[in-house]
TrEMBL record:
Cited SMART domains: Haemolytic (SM01234)
Subcellular location: Cell membrane
HAMAP family (UniProt xref): UPF0161_YidD
Membrane topology: Peripheral membrane protein
Keyword tags: Cell membrane, Membrane
NCBIfam families in the cross-refs: membrane protein insertion efficiency factor YidD
Function noted in UniProt: Could be involved in insertion of integral membrane proteins into the membrane.
Cited Pfam families: YidD
InterPro entries membership: Membr_insert_effic_factor_YidD (IPR002696)
Family: Belongs to the UPF0161 family.
Residue stretches spanning the membrane: none
PANTHER family: MEMBRANE PROTEIN INSERTION EFFICIENCY FACTOR-RELATED (PTHR33383:SF1)
Protein's name according to its UniProt entry: Putative membrane protein insertion efficiency factor
Length: 99
């Protein structure tokens, strides 16, 4: 059941990973913030879910403009301890003790 609830988040993560691998290298290093906007979006969706992560990423992209000072701007850490991020970047339910 939990895997079904994580499906929208993981589909969005797959799209962001594809973007970071295929499209992002074409632009080069143009983001004024660290991590880059695409990395920020990936981390925000991983930790906060599809809806909140998308809202955080949209706000970040709006702030990333030529008049921005930029700097270090990490997404807020909100990962529920019931979930874990796999080595490939997807979110899965955490292993339950004794199970």
């Amino acid at each position: 059941m939990t895997a079904v609830l994580l499906l929208p988040r993981n589909l969005l993560i797959a799209a962001l990973l594809a973007y970071r691998r295929l499209v992002s290298p074409l632009y080069g290093q143009v983001c004024r913030y660290h991590p880059s906007c695409s990395r920020y979006a990936l981390e925000a969706v991983q930790q906060s879910g599809a809806a909140v992560g998308t809202a955080l990423a949209a706000w970040r992209v709006l702030r990333c403009n030529p008049w921005s000072r930029g700097g270090v701007d990490d997404p807020p850490a909100r990962l529920n301890p019931a979930y874990r991020i796999t080595p490939l970047g997807f979110v899965r339910p955490a292993e339950q003790p004794g199970g």
